Amino acid sequence: MAVTASGWETDQLPGGTVDAVVIGGGAAGLNGALMLARSRRSVVVVDSGTPRNAPADAVHGLLGLEGTAPAELLRRGREEVRSYGGLVVAGEVASAAPASASTPSASASAEGNDPRFTVTLADGGALTARRLLVATGLRDVLPDVRGLAEHWGHGVVHCPYCHGWEVRDESIGVLAVGPASVHHALLFRQLTDDLVYFSRGTEPDGDTRARFAARGIRIVDAPLERVVTDREGGIAGVRLADGQLVDRRVLAVVTRMLARTDGLEGLGLPMEDFPGGMGRRFSAGPAGVTDVPGVWVAGNATDLTAQVGASAAAGALAGAHINADLAAADTEAALAAVRRDDSAA
Asked: pLDDT digit string (tens) for 169-180?
């Protein structure tokens, strides 16, 4: 077993066809793999090692694991998957697509086949799988404000439930990006009495201004110039275009959330946009089933607002449904074999 540059162990690719390949080793992917491995399925997790919450100090709102460092949570998850025979491979998926031919073993799918998929990694390695679970997560796109990105995950936060307690009673500024920022501001107002709303050209209407005034939220309509860093590396405030510095220690922003799709174009998975240009995700039905037979999606790749606990639960549900689909396919294949033997006798 090799060790990655990040210090975690990576398994070798297996030969032959595995029951499932999980693309993405975050909470959703690992919990889906755990369910499959515990059902005695051969499963391989392919993990690029770039989780969305890497900049965060801890995971919050996760019962029994409150305050766990993200890297530690994933380390434990990889160990748990391996303890049941699953494999976790470090790598990036270069392509994933249906194999050129599928085995006609009459699975539970309406097409009456047991699909196969080829997953090729950036280093040239390849896997063949009967089912796929896409759990690639998403990437956050910050508004184009000078000095903002360097504080991401620390002084710049996006989720009042993930980070709110940790910034309670601080001087918080909300950088507006659209209508969703109004709701965002009201949630952060629950956490501090000192809240400034930088409208950034979004032009809050009269009703919004009245509601903000009632809650003591100050609106700054002047254009922003940059985020100012203090001597300790934290946020000192926001410099306006007229030169004024608005003192703030924390900035909250609604990010544009985009499902990670690299290497998955060959699957032809349907996607959909969030209203107002706030994001783009994979379309999925109950339990993460997609319109592509044999492919499921779980976690932030399809539920852009899911926290770690919700993503893990979605992965577990998808894993259970994948196992059920495989069990149906195995049964149909066994029945077909018996009937062939009977007819040949």
From this structure: 999 999 999 999
